[in-house]
Design brief:
With 390 residues, the protein is α+β, with helices and mostly antiparallel strands. Helices cover 49% and strands 15% of the residues. The chain is globular, with a radius of gyration of 21 Å. The structure holds flavin-adenine dinucleotide. The site of flavin-adenine dinucleotide (FAD) has 23 residues, from β1, β3 and α11.
């Protein structure tokens, strides 16, 4: 593999430390959490104590003020062992980032120190039963009442939904205005009228809680607004590249890991008097995947570098997410095949990786939405594509 050049000695020492934490505090318990459908709150507190949450939050808000690569190391080390339960990525990469970028000094001082420690867990509430890809169509309303807003509506598929203490909530403050009527709020889970629905049963990522959330006349002060009124959609658009980059990092990491597992397994497993790896088909399948995993990793690392220089273009982020997600899903499928019946057994990590993978082509912008973004860039100036709703 082409050597990765992003990380320095400090990042590598951090990786060792995170790896130890993951091996000790997560790996032995993950199967139980899959059964429970949730990870315990104590894990969040331990992760906070160990510094795994919100690495980039500045010291004045209680964080260590490190660079983005420290967060990347945490995400990679979780994906490397298939630990899809802890929703640290949403909390760190999305919720804390939204608060850091758009929050008032008061909001930052209130939430970020608690989020760094794992004492407050964050969720991002955008998707609704009738509005996922087409976020402009969201219906949750926030209506002004004096110096307050009253929120009514429903969200669905919300990661960390069963445990969250704060939600970055996308609402409509003016239904007549479409995208320009979208406003973000920070909503505390302690507010009267806020209710958590079911912990939804999923195909994979079984240890991560994913929920419906209900808002029934939830009254919040206008000081809970995150950013300016009517700017919510534009704010969300500025964060999508980061979300897509994180998805690409996940897919690049899982792809490499699953190939490693399969090389090891097929070298040991015997059939017809030889190892499975002795079949030329096995070698060709894995060589093909390895070649593409390497190019995906190099492209993703380049995107990380650009992101850190504040130069990551949304089209490049879409390309990274699309290519790595498709490769991720193809890899788990082809590798599971080489495990035979054992690959279909839940006790084998490849089985879990297969089930966990499917979501990457849907969440954070579906493959089709990524293609639309890329095509729109290619056909700039074409009137028809300019009118695209994505
Ligand atoms: C496990 C999980 C966790 C999630 N976590 C969160 C979370 O924490 N917070 C949150 O807000 N949301 C979350 N989501 C929601 C996720 O972002 C949405 O599922 C996603 O945006 C797609 O929306 P949808 O499900 O409504 O699909 P729809 O928008 O109904 O789309 C269905 C399908 O239609 C096709 N399609 C849609 N638009 C286009 C288009 N423009 N062109 C061509 N084809 C198109 C695609 O094939 C797409 O998959 C999560 C989802 C899952 C499954």
């Amino acid at each position: 593999m082409i050597e990765r050049t992003l990380f320095n000695e400090e990042h590598e020492m951090w990786r060792e430390s995170v790896r130890r934490f993951v091996e000790q505090e997560i790996v032995p318990f993950h199967a139980k959490w899959e059964h429970d459908g949730i990870v315990p709150r104590e894990l969040w507190l331990k992760a906070g104590e160990h510094g795994l949450l919100c690495c980039t939050v500045p010291e004045r808000y209680g964080g260590p003020g490190l660079d983005y690569l420290f967060d990347v190391v945490v995400f990679e080390e979780l994906w490397r062992v298939g630990a899809s339960g802890p929703g640290f990525l949403i909390h760190t990469d999305l919720v804390a980032t939204y608060i850091l970028t758009f929050g008032t000094e008061e909001q930052k001082c209130h939430w970020l120190p608690k989020m760094v420690k794992g004492e407050a867990i964050g969720s991002l509430g955008m998707t609704e039963p009738h509005a996922g890809s087409d976020l402009k169509a969201l219906r949750t309303q926030a209506i002004r009442d004096g110096d307050d807003f009253i929120i009514n509506g429903q969200k669905v598929f919300i990661s960390n939904g069963q445990m969250c203490d704060v939600i970055v909530l996308a609402t409509k403050t003016d239904s007549a205005l479409g995208a320009k009527g979208v406003t973000l709020f920070l909503v505390e889970s302690t507010r009267k009228g806020f209710n958590r629905g079911r912990n939804l049963e999923k195909l994979g990522m079984k240890a991560q809680d994913t929920s419906e959330l209900f808002f029934d006349n939830v009254r919040i002060p206008s000081s809970n607004m995150l950013g300016a009124e009517g700017r919510g959609f534009a704010q969300m658009m500025t964060k999508l590249s980061q979300e897509r980059l994180a998805q690409a990092i996940r897919s690049a990491t899982v792809t490499e890991t699953v190939i490693e597992w399969t090389v090891k397994y097929t070298a040991e497993r015997m059939a017809f008097g030889q190892s499975i790896a002795d079949f030329q088909n096995t070698q060709f399948v894995l060589a093909d995947l390895r070649a593409r995993a390497t190019t995906a990793r190099v492209y993703t690392d380049k995107c990380i570098e650009l992101f850190m220089e504040d130069k990551l273009d949304p089209v490049d982020a879409a390309i990274a997410k699309m290519v790595t997600s498709e490769l991720h899903c193809e890899t788990v499928d082809k590798c599971l095949q080489l495990f035979g019946g054992w690959g279909y057994m839940w006790e084998y990590p490849i089985c879990r990786a297969y089930a966990d993978a499917r979501v990457v082509k849907i969440a954070g912008g579906s493959i089709e939405v990524m293609k639309t973004i890329i095509a729109r860039d290619m056909f700039k100036g074409s009137l028809k594509l300019k009118k695209s709703s994505v």
